[in-house]
Amino acid sequence: MSFSPYLLKGQKALITGGSSGIGEAITRHLAGAGASVAVNYHSHSENAEKIVDDIKSSQGEATAIQADVSKEDEVKAMFSQTLDHFGTIDILVNNAGLQKDASFVDMSIDQWNAVMGVNLTGQFLCAREAAQEFLRRGVRPDISSAAGKIICISSVHEIIPWQGRINYAASKGGINIMMQTIAQELASQKVRVNSIAPGAIKTPINKSAWETPEAEAQLLQLIPAGRVGEVEDVAKAAVWLASDDSDYVNGTTLYVDGGMTLYPGFSTGG
Ligand code: BGC
């Protein structure tokens, strides 16, 4: 673990979709940096429980909480459970997200709503609940110079259009302006809100894009760094954004994409 186990000491974090992929890595890294973590999952309790056990066996504090973040009552119940368990919350990682791909003309309203519901409405609901607690409690100077931190997991597709995934790209574009608006509204109350926009990271969501050498070679044409990202690349950025080391960073999107947003197709002059 590259971070000090005291960096986030005393801080309580909730990670939505924290039991797999990028969310799991963020959960483990925040715990490794000393935070107590609530691991939200939607359907597979085994993964969440395994992560909780691992963290507890390294003397960390963790709990698993089931909720569908697109449902207001479930989000409220999840925050009540988190506050009952940890007393308060200092860090929210809005990570839960999904894809349901279809061409624009064939996309059903169910595919549209399912993705917007989790990726955008889910982030709104969780951010609102977290912010209410941040404002109620205020700054605890011995813990952090912020009253609270929200990290929204976005995507390079908040700016790169993506054919066949209009629901996903629109949800991520929405996250950007939502994140900035919350940051603007709460900055004077010492709440920091930022996004991380990952590029292609090896997770189950995009397995078909990197699992064969042919697919990976094609994907690498879009990545100047010459490698597909690892979940740790994103998790390390999340720990930094959650810590006071980034105290002067607010309303910003950090692209963790190996240069995917540099329009590599233009690297030879276009
Ligand atoms: C998507 C991945 C995709 C990546 C780059 C992410 O937001 O979830 O499926 O590989 O963007 O296109």
Describe the overall structure.
There is one protein chain. This protein has helices at residues 21-32, 45-57, 72-86, 109-137, 166-186, 213-220, 231-242; strands at 12-15, 36-41, 62-66, 91-94, 148-153, 191-198, 253-256. The chain is of the alpha/beta class. The chain has one domain (12-201, 230-259): 3-Layer(aba) Sandwich (Rossmann fold). The mean pLDDT is 97. The protein is 41% helix and 14% strand. The longest helix has 29 residues, at 109-137. It is globular, with a radius of gyration of 18 Å.
Short characterization:
The chain has 270 residues and is of the alpha/beta class. The chain has 7 helices and 7 strands, in the order βαβαβαβαβαβααβ. Strands 3-2-1-4-5-6-7 form a 7-stranded parallel sheet, sandwiched between helices.
Task: Report the count of strand segments.
Answer: 7
- Overall 3D form: globular
Task: Output the CATH homologous superfamily.
Answer: NAD(P)-binding Rossmann-like Domain
Mean pLDDT: 97
Layout of secondary structure:
Layout: E1 12-15, H1 21-32, E2 36-41, H2 45-57, E3 62-66, H3 72-86, E4 91-94, H4 109-137, E5 148-153, H5 166-186, E6 191-198, H6 213-220, H7 231-242, E7 253-256
Helix pairs in contact: 1-7, 3-4, 4-5
Bound molecules: beta-D-glucopyranose.
Beta-D-glucopyranose (BGC) binds at residues 99, 155-157, 199-200, 205-206, 209.
